[in-house]
Each structure stands twice: as C-alpha cells, then as structure tokens.
Design brief:
Blueprint lengths: L11 H28 L7 H27 L4 H23 L21 H19 L2 H12 L2
Helix pairs in contact: 1-2, 1-4, 2-3, 3-4
Length: about 160
Amino acid sequence: MASDTSFVEKPGTVIAAAVLGFIQAGAALVATVLLFAELIGDSGRDVAEGWIVGIALLASTIMLIFGTIRLLSGIDRRLFISALGLQLAICLYLVIKTTTEDNIGIAPGGIPPGSGHAKFDPIIFLTAYAVLPVVALILALSGSASRWLRARRNNR
C-alpha cells in the first residue's frame, strides 16, 4: 500500500513512551498490592492515609493502562499524561512525607531505628520510581508524537 497517503508510521517516541507506561503500570500495580497487603489488618495511625494513597495509586495505574492503550492506538494522550502526572504527584507526596517524619519505622535518614540492618533509603527508591514517568512524559509530549497524533486525528 505504498500509494496510501493516509498511513502515517507510528514514531518510536510513541512506542517507547507506551513501553515505559506499561512498565510503570506494572511497577505501580506491584506497589499497590504490597501496600494493600501491608494495610490489611493494620490499625496504626496512618492506616486511613495509607488507604487513600493506595486507592489513588490503583486509580492512577488503571488510568495509565488505558491511557497507554489510547496513546498506542493514536486516539489521544490526555489520559496517559494525566495518569503519569498523578503517579508523579503521589511520588512527590511520599518523598515529602518520608523526609518530614518517621515513616513506617524508617527514620528520615533511611536507617531503621535500632535494627542493625542494612540501610534502606526510601528517597532513592522513590526517585528511581519517578524516572519512568518523567521519561515517558517527555517522549509522549515530543514533537514527533504530537505530529503523529495530529495526523491520526485528521485522517479520521
């Protein structure tokens, strides 16, 4: 179909953003399941807050899966961008919470109090968790992705 001028090849930036979106959705789903498993049967002071964060994380994961499908299909990228923004907002909230108070038994410096175990720094983990959404946003907002989505919209 070389004579079909309505076909516009999907740019690599869209494919890469979608792959990162699916990877992020998988990581967020694992984090959500682990968070819910931790919250079940817990009666600590931060349980309600944990459930709110967990529900927001689950909602953003579902949004991200459907947004990635919409991006790959060439429909639009609004849901994809919104889901990544929500994931980043949750991550930023957790970074602020972790650095301002003792969280889940881990002091702000990242050393479990009195445990003698290896140092776990949640800030490094949360920063690494934020990398995929940032890169996926950059790719999804690129010029080639914009041109492709505009061409797909104009050809309908």
